[in-house]
Structure formats: C-alpha cells, structure tokens
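Tokens as discussed.
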C-alpha cells in the first residue's frame, strides 16, 4: 500500500509542472493545459486525503472531486471558446499579443 506522502509527492510534482506550464509558456492552449494539470493535482489531493481519513465510507472526497471535474470541464470549454474567438480576430494564440480588449 502506498503511503499518503507518496500521493502528496505525485500531486506536488503535477502541480509544479502545471504551474510552470501556465507561467512560462506563451501559447494560450498550453496555459490551459497547465491549469488543468493543477486542477488534477488538487483532485488527487482530495482523493488521497479522503482515502486516508478516519471515515472513508463517507464519500465526501469523491463528491468534491466530482464537482471539481465538472468545474474543470466547464472551465476548459469556456477557455477554448475564448481562445478560438481571439484566434479568429488576432490570428494568434500568443498570450503576449492578447493585451487589449479592443475588437
């Protein structure tokens, strides 16, 4: 059986990779992928703490993860819709060139 520290280590690594991708990249799609990795790391934390809790029969961690997955799916849909809309107007997905709200 893997201890809680193992799950937390994997979650921290996933979160670090997602944060590095979201902060250092200029492509908006890669930024969204980095945000999704960070959300998946949070989901892994929820499941790990739920599994190692004194009362794992309560299913509270699973409920949190299901809500988090639903929010992540909505975030990805809205984010991709915004990127497609900006790409149609600017012909680029470079975050540095998306600095004004003028149409």
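Sequence:
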């Amino acid at each position: 059986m893997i201890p809680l520290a193992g799950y937390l280590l994997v979650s921290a690594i996933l979160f670090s990779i997602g944060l590095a991708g979201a902060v250092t990249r200029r492509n908006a799609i890669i930024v969204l992928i980095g945000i999704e990795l960070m959300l998946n790391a949070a989901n892994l934390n929820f499941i790990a703490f739920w599994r190692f809790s004194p009362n794992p029969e309560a299913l509270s961690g699973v409920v949190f993860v299901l809500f988090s997955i639903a929010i992540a799916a909505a975030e990805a849909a809205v984010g991709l819709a915004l990127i497609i809309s900006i790409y149609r107007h600017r012909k680029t997905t470079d975050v540095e060139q998306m600095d004004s709200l003028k149409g």
